[in-house]
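Thread: "does anyone have the structure for this chain?"

Original post by V.I.:
We have the sequence but no experimental structure in hand. Need at least a predicted one for the grant figures.
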Amino acid sequence: DTQLAWIKFRDGNCEFASSAFEGGSIVPTIFSGCMENITEKRTADFTAYQQGKILPALGSNYEEADRLLNIAYQRLLNSLSATRREKLIDAQLAWIDFRDANCGFESNRVSGGRNICLIRMSEIRTQQLISVDR
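Reply from O.Q.:
Generated one for you, tokens below.
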């Protein structure tokens, strides 16, 4: 379930990333580069899981991490054209499904894993959204 949710997020996120160049000949290159980058990150997650490692979060408060994520999301959303806005919404909904499934998986592996995972994934997603907004 987690991996299927990740695939939906990956595809939607890369659709959003490449939509900035809609109509241009570089779209396939941007899309495939996004797919490669996000797949490398997921592979690193699997390697960490195999080694019994769960990556730590920087913060310790999920509500704060979620608040910052929502600020970054709304800021980016408000700066986009209608077409790109829909792609971001789709990607973000897929990310939420992936986050929830992944954190459920991690909660079965380590004590406190769900909360740490929610914070860490929110922090990472916030940075991803901020980097698009630049």
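V.I.: this helps a lot. The CA atoms of residues 48 and 54 lie 7 Å apart.
O.Q.: and The mean pLDDT is 93.
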